[in-house]
Amino acid sequence: MAASSTAQVLSLYRLLMKESKKFPSYNYRTYALRRVRDAFRENKTVEDPKVLEELLNRARDSLALIQRQLVTEQHWPPFSSIVWAQKQCK
Amino acid sequence: MISSSNVLITVTYQAVKAQLSLDLVIKSRELEKDELRPLYMDFQATTPMDPRVLDAMLPYQVNYYGNPHSRTHAYGWESESAMEKARKQIAALIGADPREIVFTSGATESNNMSIKGVARFYKAKKKHIITTQTEHKCVLDSCRVLEAEGFDVTYLPVKHNGLIDLQQLEEMIRPDTSLVSVMTINNEIGIKQPIKDIGHLCRSKNVFFHTDAAQAVGKIPINVSDWKVDLMSISGHKIYGPKGVGALYVRRRPRVRIEPLQNGGGQERGLRSGTVPTPLAVGLGAACEIAQQEMAYDHKHVTMLAKRFVEKIMSEIADVVMNGDPDQRYPGCINLSFAYVEGESLLMALKDVALSSGSACTSASLEPSYVLRAIGTDEDLAHSSIRFGIGRFTTEEEVDYTADKCIQQVKWLREMSPLWEMVQEGIDLKSIKWTQH
């Protein structure tokens, strides 16, 4: 059980980071990446399976939310930021 | 198992998406090419909506469009339950009861409602109101209107660090004072007033206490019972929520009576009639819930960025003054005065950063901000002040870029400034007698 939950956590993390990278807006993109990373880091040592399940559900909801918001934002994209115009997506 | 209908839907969706993208590409080419937008560093003026807030609002903009006051059908019931859920979320953030929250169109309306409402309700016996000189324009203007109606208004001065003097406030309270209004966090200089002490003082003197917490809600922990606040204004678009909505906290025990500004069908306890805009209310509720969850994380991030920014600027250029108390403040609102540099020209030089030299409502005029005047800033320093706003979505890169650009432009502008030349030569500017031609 522990092994599969670690795998679950890792796969959710990878998915969340992959989806967050797709935000067209620089500010939303950087915030999503930072927040996801910090949230997973903060809960690294959680052992209690109930708490873990709740956190994983929250992560899945966040993933669905990011995917929905990506669709919305991609149809109303921001103009390039004057500063980050030449930079690649993070 | 992929059914044929699924495939059809997917194919149609892709086709629609492709067409939309094509339309947008064509449209964006028609607009100015390579239109680049500045960095956003003006979080006190307004904030971008958090994607989580938009996600909560969208269903109510699309299919769940019922009027929350319709009692007879499911559209009304579901809107009402969404509105009540939002009310609970807002109340939880400030430590209030959901029945004490009234939805309004923003903090300006909340401020108008509380000041005019309380003053007019108790006008038979109480004719005195106390506020400060650094309040938001809507508070000051409401007081001006009340003065014309025959009320006595005292505008408390602030100390040089922006805080009010509690001793002075106590002396100013008269037996016929009905309301004291002091904003929690100032939108121009970021000063945090001692609201708890003021609240206890007002309660002991039986005076109602209103605070404009538009910049404070969701950023610092607030508890209206702890602070003994009777009325509190909340703004949606300052906490990553939608524009056009706000709330007013009106205490029920001990009861605060208000004469309503907007009359009608008796919605919102009769205090603010009118259909509550469900999607906006839901957005405000979601913004409050997110702010509560993220408060510690955001505060840590903003404090770190603010420290980095100020240290960088202060270490590279001399004669920079941070307006307001260095400790009793919200770190995300930094108001700096750069001596011997004109504020508007610095703003224009920093054209790739979105900044402001005062509050948005006073930015149209060329006068220096009245808040800076109230804290006793010299006229020339008041003209050269810029407000930097840091928020949830600001990154280290943006802060570094802004600091570097600011340092570079200040140095460049100072090279061109004759005042700077004179200061370098050791002339005391205050001793110069400027002649008239």
Describe the structure.
Chain A: Belongs to the complex I LYR family. Chain A: This is Lyr motif-containing protein 4a. Chain A: Residues 7-64 form the Complex 1 LYR protein domain. The complex is a heterodimer of chains A (90) and B (437). Chain A is mainly α and 90 residues long. Chain A contains 3 helices and no strands. The model of chain A is unreliable at 85-90 (pLDDT under 50). Chain B is α/β, with parallel strands linked by helices. Chain B has 14 helices and 12 strands. A 7-stranded mixed beta sheet of chain B has the order 2-8-7-6-5-3-4, with helices on both faces. Residues 27-34 of chain B have low confidence and may be disordered. Chain A binds chain B through residues 26-28, 30-32, 34-35, 38, 65-66, 68-69, 72-75, 77-83, 85, and chain B through 20-21, 24, 28, 34-40, 48, 51-52, 54-55, 58, 297, 352, 392-395, 398, 401.
Summarize the helix and strand pattern of chain A as letters: HHH
Oligomer: heterodimer
Rg of chain A, rounded, reads: 15 Å
Counted by DSSP, the helix tally of chain A is 3
Instruction: Give the C-alpha Rg of chain B.
Output: 25 Å
User: Uncertain regions of chain B: pLDDT < 50 for 5+ in a row?
Assistant: 27-34
Give, in spatial order, the strands making up the sheet with the most strands of chain B: 2-8-7-6-5-3-4
Structural class of chain B: alpha/beta
What is the 3D shape of chain B? globular
- Calculate the mean pLDDT score of chain B and round it: 90
Largest sheet of chain B: 7 strands, mixed
Shape of chain A: elongated
| Total DSSP E strands of chain A | 0
Q: Which spans of chain A of ≥5 residues are poorly predicted at pLDDT below 50? A: 85-90
Write the layout of secondary structure elements.
The complex is a heterodimer of chains A (90) and B (437).
Chain A (H helix, E strand, L loop, with lengths): L1 H19 L5 H17 L6 H27 L15
Chain B lengths: L3 H27 L8 E2 L10 H12 L11 H21 L6 E4 L2 H15 L6 E5 L4 H12 L3 E5 L9 H7 L4 E5 L13 H10 L3 E5 L11 H4 L3 E5 L10 E5 L27 H39 L3 E3 L10 E6 L4 H7 L3 E2 L15 H5 L4 H5 L1 E5 L6 H21 L1 H7 L13
Parallel strand pairs in B: 1-11, 3-4, 3-5, 5-6, 6-7
Antiparallel strand pairs in B: 2-8, 7-8, 9-10, 10-12
Helix pairs in contact in B: 2-9, 3-9, 4-5, 9-13
